[in-house]
Amino acid sequence: MNIAIGSDHAGFSLKPVIIEFLNQSGYHIIDHGSYDPNPVDFPDIAKKVCEDILNGKAQRGIMICGTGVGAAIACNKIHGIRASVCHDIYTAHQCVEHDNVNVICLGAQIIGSAIATEMVEEFLQARFSTKEEFRRRVKKLDMMDIDKR
Q1: Residue-wise pLDDT tens digits, 9-25
Q2: What residues have CB less than 8 Å from 100, skipping those under 6 apart?
Q3: Among the four 20, 32, 34, 115, which has the fewest Cβ within 10 Å?
Q4: Contacts 24+ apart (CB under 8 A), 128-133
């Protein structure tokens, strides 16, 4: 599986930990920065991560900022992307299983590296449920995207 990853300067310290975990787990990584701790605007990085998902270069994305909130807002502005802030293990897999989320947004100032890597593992191993109730709800989310355009 190809994974697009990015962070702003606030998420820079956690990103290498996640990349190391992904490498050890056999994932192919597309790194969109930040490449140093200098200030960078998270919407610019989020756009690159999301573009890789939309054009099929990556199957999932990981965005890291201070809280995960700004990254999630930026990603969710892009048609076809469903991003979720996750700070716990249950949400990391449930957001995929019930809501077909394709970008996890982590807060480097909120969670530590051990929890973050476990959450990423759960997120990447999760699959969207085949239950009709979840499919119906996600279809409605898709229609809301269309209405927004």
Answers
A1: 999 999 999 999 999 99
A2: 82, 128, 134, 138
A3: 20
A4: 128/96, 128/97, 128/100, 129/97, 129/98
Domain that holds residue 74: 2-148
Q: d(Cα 10, Cα 109) in Å, to the nearest integer? A: 8
- Six token digits for residue 126: 């999760």
Q: Contact 5/32 with Cβ under 8 angstroms?
A: yes
Distances (CA, A) of 8 to 30, 38, 128, 144: 15, 9, 28, 29
Peptide bond into 13 cis (omega under 30): no
Tokens for 121, please give them.
């593992």
Digit-coded pLDDT (tens) for 43-52? 999 999 999 9
User: Domain total for the chain?
Assistant: 1
Instruction: Check which CATH number belongs to the domain holding 6 and give it.
Output: 3.40.1400.10
Q: Which residues are catalytic?
A: 65
